[in-house]
Amino acid sequence: MVSFWWSRGDGLANHQLGQILSRASGVDGVDITDPQSLDRALRIAVADPAVLAELEAWWQMVETRRAGNGTRNPGLGLDQSIRYLPDRLDADTVTPEALGECRRQVAAVDQTIISAKNLPELAHPDAEMLDLLGRYLEARSRVLALA
Fold this sequence. Notes:
Layout: H1 2-6, H2 11-23, H3 35-45, H4 49-65, H5 75-89, H6 96-115, H7 120-123, H8 127-146
């Protein structure tokens, strides 16, 4: 369960996980962004019953914080989606097929945002998330204006 909730991309929760693993005996230099490093650290950490209990409390806290919503942090893929739309729209010729692809991309991102609306990243967005959402709305408006 720890790996699943880690992969949701909750920055605050993952920072807390890094602190737990850093305190665990025998775990040094955990790269919390690297899945293999995380897996190695977890294999070492679970040998200690106290750390195991702390990890269980951590994933339960994350599950509660995210209201059981397993949707990944929408900010993780939003930047890529934002870059995709202007790249397609700034082409010399915007074909009906390209416009259709952009509309499908907008629909997919809209659905992701809707499914994540109650997650901490959107319920209490930081400056980076607000910037991403603003850039997305601008790109989305361009697509819808052409439709």
